[in-house]
Amino acid sequence: VQLQASGGGLVQPGGSLNLSCSASGNIFRINSMGWHRQAPGKQRELVASITSLGGRTTYLDSVTGRFTISRDNSKNMVYLQMTSLKPEDTAVYYCHLRNLGSDNSWGQGTLVTVSS
Q1: Residue 63, C-beta contacts closer than 8 angstroms, at least 6 positions apart
Q2: pLDDT in tens, 57-97
């Protein structure tokens, strides 16, 4: 599975940013896609994920109500709408895809910087 993320950049606190990720390769019908992030000196953490069947979503507590994950199964795309961004959201964001019964496949990461 190959993943290509885009949409990172510099944004002021309180601003918004949208991330996109396209997946290709051996993608099972049953999978989850989503986003992790890793800030300098910190461990990678799951930000949000969404399942291919039913669109069940999971969010990190600190982004609930500010971030929205969505996907387009016909295009093998996953999106992350980020609003009310805070400096602590600054990190490299990695999209992932997990086929049923497999480990995560990772994209290359896109940097999100929230700063005035």
Answers
A1: 47, 48, 82, 89
A2: 999 999 999 999 999 999 999 999 999 999 999 999 999 99
Per residue in 90-104, pLDDT tens?
A: 999 999 999 998 999
Write the Ramachandran bin of 101: left for phi over 0, alpha for psi from -120 to 50, otherwise beta. Answer: left
- In terms of Cα–Cα distance, which of 87, 96, 79 is closest to 36? 96
Work out the angle at residue 78's Cα, subtended by the Cα atoms of residues 14 and 111, and round it to the nearest 5 degrees: 50
Burial class (CB in 10 A: 0-12, 13-18, 19+), 44: middle
